[in-house]
Amino acid sequence: MSGTYRAIQLQRFAESFRAATEIVTLDLTDPAPGQVLVRNHYCGINGIFDTQIARNAVDYVKIGLPTLTGVEAIGVIVAVGEGVADFAVGDAVVTTRFPGGYREWNLADQGHFVKVPELAPEWLALASTGVSAAMALEYIGAVEDGETVAISAAAGGLGHFMVQLAAQRGCHVVAVCGGSDKAAFARDLGAARVIDYRSESVTDILAVEYPDKLDVAIDTVSGTIFDAFLKNVAPHGRVVVGGAAADLEGRPEIVTQPRIAHSLYYKGASVRGFMNGLLTEQWPAARERVFSAYSSGDLKVRFDDRKFTGLEGIFDGIERLLSGQSIGKVIVDLRP
């Protein structure tokens, strides 16, 4: 395979992904034994991770400059190396391995890819964010049928899957999101109670309506929302930390209040960290459940209304996600 392709490369550490990266042209080569060559068609945006990578602030990823970027992409196999038995030319595949996302072509070990039924962006969202949602809710949150489940950023890429998965298990879902459009979307997904944090107090509503009643609370925001979830966790409840968008600047708020143990001990409750990259052995089972739910029509995929194309669109997609305006999954069409 001869020719070149373009990719986004991290060339320096900076405050923003746009400032830290450049679009570069690289040589296209044939796959070595055990490798597959994929033409990427769509990539998924992970704006908070991307920003922290740009700042060299992701503890579990050791960055050596320069490096390519991006995590999620779906494409079609164009060539396979010697010894590759599970994939063939023409297969649609997804990768969720850094740095396979923000590039027009991806050459990597066959273990980096998962075969999907068709070359459609829905399967990218399901294989990446859908699996993450299932892992956070079911594996770390250990949700049980009929429980009360609170979810922050409920109208986002991750949140909109968790709302559906919890509602399908008969859970009473408390969805926290910002703005009337997002609130309406969360209701349509099956949320029993929606709290619009732009016009309502999450702290006050939970204290009045859900005192000590949150069996599972999954937070990706931090700050006062995390505090409210923790204060109202039920006996034997689980608060899952899946991110800290409010602390993106790298300067976590210093708070003075009773230690977290006082919120947990007498309830037998727990706070659990969700880091999907540490759960790769559980991905296949979660993927099977998510794919099955989508195929049966029980799980829907929502993409943000803003359309982004080409590698240049990745920068705009990241900034769109960080703005807090997106609803659903943010993706970029990489096709020429």
UniProtKB/TrEMBL annotation:
InterPro entries from the UniProt entry: ADH-like_C, ADH-like_N, ER, GroES-like_sf, NAD(P)-bd_dom_sf, Zn-ADH-like_protein
Gene Ontology molecular function, alphabetical: oxidoreductase activity
Species of the source: Sphingomonas panacis
Ranges for domain Enoyl reductase (ER): 16-332
Name this polypeptide is given: Alcohol dehydrogenase
